[in-house]
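GNAT family N-acetyltransferase: structure, please.
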Amino acid sequence: MHITYRPARGEDLAPATRIVQDAYNDLRVRHGLPPSIALGPPLFQTFSFAEPSSSLWVAEADGALQGFAFAWMRQRFWFLAQLFVQPGTQSKGIGQAMLSRIMRHAEENGAENRALITMAYNTASTGLYIRNGLYPREPLLRLVAPAPLVAERIATPRLEAVPIEPWPGPREWLGRIDEAVLGFRRESHHAFQLDGVAARALRIEQAGRPVGYAYVSGAGHVGPLAVSPGAEAGEALKAAVRGALEVQPKQVSMVVPGRADRMLDVAFGLGFRIDEPFVLLSARPFGDWSRYLPSNPGFM
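Here you go.
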């Protein structure tokens, strides 16, 4: 099978999303987990495709896609959002070939750091990334809990959560929080979430002052969530979870870093359990992971 590699086109995004679904679910099943990724429209991929700071590549054989890789950049920070190879064509060097091509994007744009999130049980991919200068930095745990149980246990938080005003109104305070917690701004990502992608967009306040933000999906997933230094991370999470319950989901979920001990304490007190382990890899350390919950491995 002869593989060719090229930048993705708009019509590639839907079939590329199917590769992501097939490869992710295949990996879960091979590790004794049920398939969990449902096929949905490539919203974030389509948004990123239109941004010149992003890079999207496909591997192709006989007119059919065999792999998909996609990265985004914000300021000097480069993030590998997805790299998946169609089941049945893995272990043929496609992953390394695609990674080499897409990492040129980081070099050509002067990236000062590179990062990604992958499944912690995906040892083959983790080894691939280490060989390419990306090292494990932070364990991440996807937690889930039945919404009725969470509603029964949650107390009134000491911080208030109110809707975020329409974009670009919140640009400055969101940017300040991102710079303090992550080390860079991601303004267009906030605009993307505030354009109707998130079911709830929450400004977390202390005495009327913004000290954090959280986005909630229609399925009850919390993230990304960021909390300013000095604010109570556990109380911020409580405020975000109460906002998640307002969309009336069957369950609430989130991805919590191992370093976020205050938020882990709150989550386990509310009845959350571990669903899936992830790991953050990067060329060098960055961010305060006691104060940030990523949304998912692609969006961060």
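Notes: The mean pLDDT is 95.
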